[in-house]
Design goal:
The protein is mainly α. The chain has a domain at 54-153. The chain is 57% helix and 0% strand. The two termini are 13 Å apart.
C-alpha cells in the first residue's frame, strides 16, 4: 500500500484529538492490542520484500526498538500512543540526535506506521497521534519540518 503525499500528512477527519469521540480513542483498544506486536505486522506487510537495503531495514528496526521502549516506559502499547508521548519521545530524540536525524530516521517511520494503521482495514485507528503532536507541540513541529516526509506523490 503506497500512499500519496496528501494522505501522509493528514491526521484524519478530526481537527484535533479533542474532537475524536471518546469511544474511538486509541486507549479504548488496549485489551485488543495487549499481546500483539503490531509493528511486526506493519514490518511484514510494508517493509519485508520491498527491496529496501539491509542498512535501511536495520535503521527501521532500530527505530522500532527505541519507539517500543519509549511507549512501554509510559505504560502504553506502541500502537496506541498519545500526542503527549510523541512529544516526550521527540524531546528524548533531540537530546541525542540532530533534528534532521530525529525526523528522517525516527519520527517519519512512526508517522508511516500510524498512517498504515489508519488506512488498513485490520486496525481500528481513526487518527494519527503523530500528526496531532505536530499540530500541538512546537518541538515536534520543528523536528517534522526539518527534513523530508516520506513518499512523494
Amino acid at each position: 500500500m503506497k500512499l500519496p503525499r496528501s494522505l501522509i500528512d493528514a491526521p484524519c477527519a478530526f481537527e484535533s484529538l479533542d474532537r475524536v469521540p471518546e469511544k474511538k480513542r486509541l486507549r479504548q483498544y488496549s485489551s485488543e492490542f495487549n499481546s500483539r506486536d503490531v509493528w511486526n505486522e506493519f514490518h511484514t506487510d510494508q517493509i519485508r520484500g520491498c527491496g529496501y537495503s539491509q542498512s535501511h531495514k536495520s535503521t527501521i528496526e532500530h527505530c522500532e526498538v527505541v519507539w517500543k521502549d519509549h511507549c512501554q516506559g509510559h505504560g502504553r502499547h506502541h500502537a496506541l500512543t498519545t500526542p503527549e508521548i510523541v512529544q516526550s519521545w521527540c524531546h528524548d530524540l533531540i537530546n541525542e540526535r540532530t533534528q534532521e536525524t530525529a525526523q528522517q530516521y525516527y519520527l517519519n517511520f512512526v508517522n508511516r506506521f500510524y498512517i498504515y494503521l489508519m488506512w488498513s482495514d485490520n486496525y481500528p485507528h481513526m487518527y494519527n497521534p503523530v500528526q496531532f503532536a505536530i499540530s500541538d507541540y512546537p518541538i515536534v513541529a520543528e523536528i517534522w519540518e526539518s527534513g523530508p516526509h516520506g513518499d512523494k506523490e
